[in-house]
Amino acid sequence: MKKTPQDTAVIGAKQLSFKDKAENVLKCWQLYAFLLPALVILILFSYVPMYGVQLAFRDYNPIMGITGSPWVGFDHFTRFFNSYQFKQLIGNTLILSLYSLIVGFPIPIILALALNQVKNSKFKKLVQTVTYAPHFISVVVLVGMLGIFFSVNGGLVNEVIKLFGGEPKLFMGEVKYFRHMYVWSGIWQSMGWSAVIYLAALSGVSPELHEAATVDGATKLQRIWNIDLPTILPTIVTLLILNCGSVMSMGFEKAFLMQNPLNMENSEIIATYVYKMGLINAEYGFSTAVGLFNSVINCILLVTVNKVSKKIGQDGLW
Amino acid sequence: MLEKIFGEGFSKQAKSDKVFDVLNYIGLAMILLLVLYPLYFIVIASFSSPDAVARGEVWLLPVDFSTEGYQRIFEYKEIWTGYWNSLKYTVVGTGINLLLTIPAAFALSRKELVGKNVIMALFTFTMFFGGGLVPTYLLVNNLGMNNTIWALVLPGAVSTYNLIVARSFFAQSIPEELYEASIVDGCTYAKYFFKVVLPVSKPILAVMFLIYAVGHWNSYFSALIYLTDRDMYPLQVILREILIQQQSVAGGSMANAEAVEAQRKLSEMIKYGVIIVSSLPVLCIYPFVQKHFVKGMMIGSVKG
Amino acid sequence: MTKFTRVLTLATATALLATSLVGCSSDKAATNGADKVAVNVNLEGYPLVDQPITLKAFAFGEPGGGDWKDFPVFQALNEKTGINVEFQTVSGDGAEEKLNLTLASNQLPDVFFSGLSDTMINKYAKMGLFLPLEDLIDQYAPNIKALLEERPEIRQAITMPDGHIYAIPAINGNLDGNVPTKLYLNKTWLDKLGLEVPKTTDEFKAVLEAFKTQDPNGNGQADEIPFTYEPTPPYNIWNGDTGLSGAFGVTDSTANLMLRDGEIIFVGTDEGYKEYIKWTRDLYTNKLIDAEIFTQDHNQYMAKRGSDYVGAYLTHGPADGTATEWIAIEPLKGPEGHQLWSQFEHGIDKNRAIISATNQYPEATMRYIDSFFELENSLNLRYGKTLVEAGDGKYEVITLEPGVQTEAPGPYVPTLETPERINEYLVQTESQIASQERYAMYEPYLADALPIFNFTAEESQELSTMATDIRNFVSEKKAKWTTGQADIDAEWDSYVETLNKMGLERYMEIYRTAYERSLEQQ
Predict the structure, then answer these.
(1) Which chain C residue is nearest to residue B227, measuring alpha carbons?
(2) Is the confidence metric ipTM above 0.85 for this complex?
(3) Coiled coil where (chain B) (predicted)?
(4) Is A52 exposed, middle or buried (0-12, 13-18, 19+ CB in 10 A)?
(5) Cβ–Cβ of C62/B266 closer than 8 Å?
(6) Pick from A119, A211, A126: which is nearest to B7 by CA?
(7) Domain ranges (residues) in chain B
(8) What's the CATH fold of domain B77-296?
(9) Is C400 on the interface with B (CB under 8 A)?
């Protein structure tokens, strides 16, 4: 980000005395008033429920309430770490989200760069309108559509495979397909929408830069590499950090809906497990413990990635 | 001709750039088809007989053309109460979202705001750490919001991600000169925000409006948990019941096996049409808002 | 980093503050409901109470079955009994979640109708959320009391290991429900190809092969699905192969158990089970079984069942409304001469009504539930709109138009139906007679039904994770072996070893203890 005069003013403010600071705060009272409602909601609905994290160390009894239930120390954690599913859950969660990240992260960037090169505005608009649309489909519908298109009996994909003389494949069933199905359907749904943010950043590239480069004989690919990409790099880094921070918190819904006994080996992830143990098996303490473990890993990841990003000379999140 | 397809100045380009353009167009056209076809399929399937769809006979055009599915949808009362409820929740919810997010994002975009990084960090922290469902449920319950619209619209009233997007817009798209000029004119922050900033912030308002509204329209989980009165169910919950029926044999019942079967047949008949009908409001707003996406969606560092 | 620490501190501080705040409010919630109004309960006749009272009820109903508060039967009961019951109905998607959250919130309704498993009842009863009902039954429930005296096996089935009864059951009189799944064959195809009804597993395979290759639907394409079923929970009891494996001497159940020669055995590690899986693998890899049995959802299965593409399937009652003629065939005879089919205890539907400890009128509530066993109430609650008068004081149960609701809770509340009541008051329809004939056909081959197990709170706690692990693993392996994705012979030993690691021995020990306990109590 470019430095504005205000930036230096803030740096200056740090050396100001307490009194000046207080004056600054007073001057901005209207800004605080703007912030207040959002802060109230944040504290009430995000921070207040965090007291419930202690459930991870208690054996929950509704009559005694969260704060009154008996302590069990690290029992739930020990049970989780020793459980037959522990390794599998961690592995599945990590592989699925890393796969999503590695494939799903660059594709919107490439799409945005490609779209940015299109001069035919009608075509550009058409592609944009169509690729944004799946983002607004709900997950239920998406998984239903997967079942329809990849069915062995008359599903479109298998019909095409048969047309080319191949054997129909059990896409929704075999373990080895689950991750591909999950990740690529996700890409289908979100690549257009994720590209928007890069397109926005790309609109800030000044045409003069491109013109000058063209005069210098740079090819389109060279210009994309040397002008467009560096422009959107800060955006890329910010999103990458946010994504890395949530590596362990894959949403439960899609995996849950795509689960069947054939693919359970790969499709049971921490989120689905926490959900099942908590809301179906009513093991609140245990479920909270697993969730807490997950959140802690997330926070560690976030801090690490942010640190690394700063080390290699990029802006961090904070 | 080529100029028409590939835009002005195509033929003047170097050969390698021409090749690039052609490949680029082909690639994008393929992506276009890949995304478009499944959506198109839902449309033709909704006009075909359910059996033909289940057997995989529907490909390019409707088979055994029928509008029975749609007729059944119009007779399905719960879909329409759900529709009305969803509309209510979306309007109220989105209103609250915007009232809270936009001013807060503006405040956080002002560099002179003392403590903004700490506040921002407070928001960001909640993206990765939460108290869990049971404590949240107990809180909502204790506040007496169970089975009311407030349980759906208040807990998620400020989305951190959207806050970051809106803040980035204010920080990057509103020229600092505007602020300086209005200060010289003796404007307060409030006046500056309402008189100067909002009028030039249409893109972000449009984008926030759409994201939040679609979020409310598609959301079902809080409704599933907090609403107990069926008359209050939003469309998505009804939709889920139609699209995925689960565990209908909870008690080991036999008496109603035929009723379940009848309900299932009905669901099979209307499921494609219901997807279309339920997406209509989004499809209606979407074209008007779409043009603002590129200007509105920006993301910067969390720190100002 | 320092800023991050600062945030953490701030967050912790906020959280601590919040603890004290919410701590207070939840204490308050626990203390209300102290003042109780004295009501006299009539043991006979209506109204049931001498002054009107209101109860809150949690109703766990049929998915898509409608809101209980709109049911005419309850509106009538409200008026008749003088007890105004306000229902909160949950059903289908999210019902279990809502039930669990309601229990966790400690703001309990006065009575729960259905939805709770034994495990949950044990767990929450131990915490003190539910009332023990024995004394209430004794004093305020003449109908239930009479039934328990007449049929002690019911008392045994609903008494928890701690000696208390927490829930009132529904009693079914129709034996057909004991055999939830049967093997159906496409008679139209059979006749068209001039084939005999198969009697053995080999003959069955030959029929399926003919279905696959001889184009019985006559469209010139080999698009027939010779055989389909739902082999995995939650529908496997109804449309699955729990009985089909009987040709190899084992019948399956949700808990993967069977009762053989008076002993509980684990099906998943039995030699007969292994042979059965190999047989299905043979059918599957020869494409005689639907490729999607393990992946399709219930809707897809039901749709296939009603189409003209299927040659055989497993289900409770045949698909109607198709041009195809479906017949149930006798259980197949296996290569070793086994001919067995699974049977489930259906006479007692446990856990239909539970009274909360916070209920202010437990006596009146008990009497209210008791009145459900009276003939008229029982019929109306069970059949709703499907019940029509047939003259001579008899009734007929009709089939409703698609989309029309029964408007009754059906099997989700306690009701009493006995074979005597059926004979005396219900006219048998054609489809009911047909289903009884099917039952008669299967009866000679039925394996012993598993008893109703009642576990102590400790046992169910211990079972809960173990059971999930074991059952998931068994069905996962079943799927892989049947589809040929993994080799059953190569994996068998390590499979058994893994099950043992998951605690199979303890799992069986718990079931055997519970079984012995049930024998002693009889």
Answers:
(1) C98
(2) no
(3) none
(4) buried
(5) no
(6) A119
(7) 2-66, 77-296
(8) MetI-like fold (1.10.3720)
(9) yes
